[in-house]
């Protein structure tokens, strides 16, 4: 702006086309709920990636190319996260490949700055599909890169990677039948499990401390870890209640469903009515995490006999519901529920081959 008898006033502003793309990214990041037929996070992320201004990003055209590349990469990260939460694994895997190609085609510094996040997304996808070995490797690498990255430390990713690694190891021990009760071990494998559990509890306490003050999601994860690694039932219930409150306020139905499942497990043998209520809410959320859009002709969408959602969680809820029916002598309902569980179990096995 020219000024009389003075040097001109120079104002530096963000170009309108960058602000337009950034608005879609902010809208996608602000939405946390992954449940429903068309969650807004996915809608904004897909719409942002379809912008003409982002079409040629990564080809070195224009002075704003790197800024737009970062916006496009962040939009892909948001899209991948919600597709993984909704169990849309082919879409999530395709977006991951596209994101990796985009970052590799830009400057090396851009890839190095996004490597921790990309690795964490890979680990979360593997974890959701049940690929335990790949998930453990991915979480360990994400934690390492986040803590010691060439382009600076990403403490959130490092903490999330460590927390994910602890979760996988807890799941492996539970799958092997380890209870963590400390009742004494007789065999060699049992002694190894006891030793691993003690180390896991020590590492888990460190991760819980790191989760504090890092947003609602990691705070809730820390509370869930304390509940699973603790020894007192009352304290575990209180930690889960705190985690549920955090997720409810944040509108994160993905974590909320997992917390409800952990909470319901505490009441299966002591308060069956309460457990059935919690399982019903959890099952509804599991179905909503991947609900298919309604077809044009009306009716319900189907995916190979499965209406969509988080199949492993829905299967767990179904199996616990069968146990409740049998405990109350409702054998007919139990058999019908078992038939439905058989359908979902087939879906879970198919996902392992995706």
| Biggest sheet overview | none
Q: Which word captures the global form? A: globular
Alpha carbon gap, first and last residue: 59 Å
What string, H for helix and E for strand, traces the elements in order? HHHHHHHHHHHHHH
User: What's the tally of helices?
Assistant: 14
- Bin the helical content: over 70%
Structure explained in plain terms:
The protein is mostly helical and 354 residues long. The protein has 14 helices and no strands. The chain has helices at 16-30, 40-49, 65-85, 89-105, 108-129, 132-148, 155-175, 188-211, 215-229, 233-250, 253-265, 272-288, 311-327, 331-351. α3 (65-85) packs antiparallel against α4 (89-105) and α13 packs antiparallel against α14 (331-351). The chain is globular. The protein starts with 15 loop residues before the first helix and ends with a helix.
Could you give a short description of this structure?
The chain is an all-alpha fold and 354 residues long. The protein has helices at 16-30, 40-49, 65-85, 89-105, 108-129, 132-148, 155-175, 188-211, 215-229, 233-250, 253-265, 272-288, 311-327, 331-351.
């Amino acid at each position: 702006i020219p000024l009389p008898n003075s040097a001109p006033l120079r104002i530096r502003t963000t170009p309108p086309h960058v602000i337009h793309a950034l608005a879609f990214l902010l809208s996608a990041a602000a939405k946390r709920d992954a449940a429903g037929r068309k969650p807004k996070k996915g809608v904004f992320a897909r719409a942002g990636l379809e912008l003409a201004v982002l079409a040629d990003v990564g080809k070195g055209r224009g002075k704003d190319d790197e800024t737009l590349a970062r916006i496009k990469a962040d939009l892909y990260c948001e899209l991948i996260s919600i597709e993984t939460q909704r169990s849309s694994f082919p879409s999530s895997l395709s977006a991951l490949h596209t994101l990796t190609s985009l970052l590799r085609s830009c400057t090396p510094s851009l890839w190095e700055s996004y490597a921790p996040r990309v690795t964490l997304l890979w680990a979360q996808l593997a974890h959701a599909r049940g690929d335990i070995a790949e998930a453990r490797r991915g979480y360990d690498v994400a934690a390492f890169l986040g803590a010691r990255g060439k382009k600076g430390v990403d403490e959130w990713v490092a903490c999330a990677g460590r927390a994910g690694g602890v979760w996988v190891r807890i799941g492996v021990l539970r799958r092997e039948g380890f209870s963590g009760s400390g009742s004494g071990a007789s065999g060699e494998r049992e002694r190894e499990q006891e030793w691993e559990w003690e180390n896991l509890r020590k590492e888990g306490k460190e991760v819980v401390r790191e989760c504090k003050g890092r947003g609602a999601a990691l705070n809730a994860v820390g509370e869930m870890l304390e509940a699973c690694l603790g020894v007192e039932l009352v304290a575990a219930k209180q930690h889960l209640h705190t985690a549920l409150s955090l997720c409810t306020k944040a509108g994160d139905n993905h974590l909320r469903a997992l917390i409800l499942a952990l909470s319901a497990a505490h009441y299966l043998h002591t308060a069956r009515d309460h457990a059935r209520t919690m399982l019903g809410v959890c099952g509804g959320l599991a179905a909503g995490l991947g609900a298919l859009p309604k077809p044009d002709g009306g009716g319900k969408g189907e995916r190979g006999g499965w209406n969509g959602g988080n199949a492993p969680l829905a299967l767990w809820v179904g199996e616990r519901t069968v146990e409740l029916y049998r405990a109350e002598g409702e054998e007919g309902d139990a058999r019908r529920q078992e038939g439905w569980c058989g359908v979902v179990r087939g879906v879970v096995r198919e996902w392992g081959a995706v």
